[in-house]
UniProtKB/TrEMBL annotation:
PANTHER family: PROTEIN SMF. It comes from Clostridium sulfidigenes. This is DNA processing protein DprA. Belongs to the DprA/Smf family. Residues 75-285 form the Smf/DprA SLOG domain. NCBIfam families: dprA. InterPro entries: DprA (IPR003488), DrpA_SLOG (IPR057666), WH-like_DNA-bd_sf (IPR036388). GO terms for biological process: DNA-mediated transformation.
Amino acid sequence: MVDLFKLWIITTEVSNNMKKYIYDEYHDFDTLRKMVINDNMTLLPKKIVEKFQKSYIKIEELAAEECKSIKDIHICIIYDIDYPISLLQYEDAPFGIFYKGNISTVNEKKNISIVGSRKCTRYGIDVTNSMVEQLSPYEINIVSGMAKGIDSVAHRAAIKNNINTIAVLGSGIDVIYPKENYRLYHEILENGGCIISEFPLGTPPLSRNFPMRNRIISGMCELLVVTEGGEKSGTLITVGAALEQGKNIIVVPGSIFSSESKGTNKLIKDGAYVYTDIEDVLNLLNISRVSIDNKNITTVKSKLEERIYQVIDDNPIHIDKIIKLVDVDINRLYKLLFELQVKEEILCLSGNFYVRINK
């Protein structure tokens, strides 16, 4: 059963400070209801009282329906033990959030937020998948926004590798956006993850909601990872929030010919940490690398992989030169390069250069 007192307060359009005052002053639903119905909140401005009276009508409707419309939805406020600890240090942290699933993991593990372009390329997908897979031995959560592109890739990669993942929505928690992520939404919950939103139930995915959503994505994490993003990508809004919050930001370099890497390459130029391999992420998180058993990863290379492997040696070689020498479709090439990285045969360096790993 949802806490109607908390629901009433967090859905009323007043400031966080006012919500704190009301919660501390009136203690429970019945007390606040009597004060509102009898119009006894004389110490508060009339506009504030009217807002609570207006929101009470919706709360009454929910109570009459015995909260069937919000089954499995929970509320967490700043005083609750499960509220994300990392958000408490920011003045603009929401007084309360709606959530579904297992929220306790948020405070039990390190949180890494992965964001990127909605129009991601094969390169961005492969890098995200590779990175998340290599993070599977560690006690971490993957946080993202369940948007199209890199966000969805990061969530799915986490699920595939048995990593808890947390989706922060720019809509009400009962509004799945984009609609094509209906299955992903439920897979996150089915695999022990969590869905979070600060917006009232039924809130549509309005454009103004996403900058607010992004500050939570960055605020919850210990490290923000940016895999792809154009010059005007919404990803850069998350980066801006992370910078204001004093977060570490690590960026995956991309081809100078890719429009989806122009924003990320500029971030590197402006001083962001550069992602070259998983060691960079672990160092920023102060995590010691563990030895991974690769016995289930085949070391037998196909003929095409062998050709690529022969082209790449101890001297870094750019992706464009590999394409010319191997003469293979770019999408297939990226897939094979990704597989060779997983087998730890080659390494991707800054600027889309590749080098062989000598074992």
